[in-house]
Write a structure and sequence with these properties.
The chain is mainly α. The protein is 63% helix and 3% strand.
């Protein structure tokens, strides 16, 4: 175990493995949720399940062996939702094959930005309050998706409006509470039951609360007629590789869609999410101190960047560091043995495909909504007393769910930040420093909306 330098970090094999189990329990929900989310783009659930397990397993093991970090990676929540919307079968901008091509190219861009250290510079150009606002906005965005797939809110695409709420049917045809579906629907009722169970488990700080919530809700759905277990009778527990999306990305379609617009669409959205999570979890483990800490962070960012393209080749959306890695760090994980343990468990999860196949939407919807709850916690870190930051942060947050677009929220928030602080600077009033890269980002955003939207 000298590979992981356990003595140097004052830890043991048992502690590292236990930390890995803890991290896996807290983030294993992704192997059930990711196929559901990406199925909205027309992707086969089993193919996404295999890509999720393989991608998370391989890239997390690479993080453990190459960087010796206790950080696990998997297809990111929020990023997969954004992928599904862009490639949605209900009016998306491109096919899922082209979207995978965009993700692959964005990974190559990440590698270049990481090696040249421009990636770090790009992130420092954005004020912390706006980074937190992006997290909060994505949380609201994910929550809406959870409400939708759980049958709690009726949503459909109409005309020029990307998302609209239609009055549901709570008791009879005379709807009295807009936006809510019928509670006579067992699936909708199960969603509420799942929300209560998962919420209570999280409030009690039970390790793996989200995963346990999915399992319990699925079991409760059996007598309710929502969970169909008939497929388990003739299930094959060996992974089914007959229908996978390995190498099915469409690079030619990326250039047809518009290379610059594609890069902006995915790279820009992915940039702040991946960097913030990686740095935040590494800092929590105390791994960023000194020159060596900076070098290791550079290697971690390189693995993270490679993971993006690896995930696209396997057939899933952006693979990134998971904030849930903090649970394993809190349990004592300090080395790559923790990450390697998580990676091996993801690979073993390939044999759980039949179970993943019976989990109903009503069981995974609460998980999405609760992830939204966790992401909302970042709202307290925004400097609300500083209106030069608070106003752009607010528009970043509110634009994402209202326009059903993460990139819209980022573009609007950043533009407001630049304009407000530029005017304050001209009036010689107190203002926030405007990094030159922020100006370029806003110009690219405005240019994209003029020419590509």
């Amino acid at each position: 175990m000298d590979l992981f330098q356990l003595r140097r970090y004052d830890t043991t094999v048992g502690r590292e493995i236990a930390a890995g189990l803890t991290t896996f329990m807290t983030m294993a929900y992704i192997i059930f949720v990711n196929p559901l989310v990406l199925s909205g783009a027309g992707m086969d659930k089993n193919a996404v399940f295999i890509a999720t397990c393989l991608g998370a397993g391989i890239v997390t093991i690479l993080m453990g062996l190459i960087v010796n970090y206790p950080i696990a990676l998997a297809p990111g929540m929020g990023l997969n939702a954004y992928f599904a919307v862009i490639a949605s079968t209900h009016g998306g901008q491109m096919s899922w094959q082209t979207a995978l091509g965009c993700v692959f190219i964005s990974g190559i861009v990440f590698i270049i930005l990481t090696v040249t250290k421009i990636r770090q510079l790009l992130v420092t150009a954005v004020p912390d309050s706006l980074k937190y606002a992006i997290t909060v906005g994505i949380g609201l965005f994910i929550t809406i998706i959870g409400f939708k797939i759980g049958g709690v809110m009726n949503m459909q695409y109409t005309g020029g409006t990307p998302l609209s709420l239609k009055p549901g049917d709570l008791i009879d045809n005379n709807s009295w509470l807009p936006g809510l579906s019928s509670l006579h629907s067992p699936a909708t009722a199960l969603t509420f039951i799942g929300l209560l169970i998962t919420g209570l488990l999280m409030a009690l700080r039970v390790p793996g609360a989200i995963l346990i919530g999915i399992i319990l809700t699925t079991l409760i759905g059996i007598p309710m007629g929502v969970t169909n277990v008939s497929s388990l009778q003739n299930a094959t527990w060996w992974p089914n590789f007959s229908n996978v999306n390995f190498g099915k990305l469409d690079l030619a379609g990326v250039f047809h869609y518009g290379l610059i617009s594609a890069l902006f669409t995915f790279t820009f959205v992915e940039l702040f999410d991946t960097f913030g999570t990686l740095v935040g979890t590494a800092n929590k483990a105390g791994l960023l101190e000194g020159a060596e800490g900076e070098r290791r962070l550079g290697r971690a960012m390189l693995v993270d960047a490679c993971g993006v393209s690896i995930g696209a080749l396997l057939g899933t959306s952006t693979i990134t560091a998971f904030v849930e890695s903090g649970s394993g760090i809190a349990a004592g994980g300090r080395t790559g043995l923790t990450a390697t343990t998580v990676g091996v468990l993801f690979l073993l999860s390939l044999f759980l495909a039949p179970i993943a196949g019976i989990i109903p939407d009503a069981a995974t919807a609460p998980a999405l909504i609760m992830v939204g709850v966790l992401m909302m916690s970042a709202v307290r870190l925004i400097e609300w007393d500083n209106l030069a930051l608070a106003i752009p942060a607010f528009f970043t947050i509110i634009t994402m769910p209202l326009t059903y677009s993460i990139s819209n929220g980022i573009a609007v928030g950043f533009t407001f930040f630049l304009l407000i602080n530029a005017v304050l600077w001209l009036l010689r009033r107190e203002h926030e420093r405007i990094h030159w890269l922020m100006v370029i980002i806003v110009i690219l955003a405005v240019w994209r909306y003029i020419w590509f939207v």
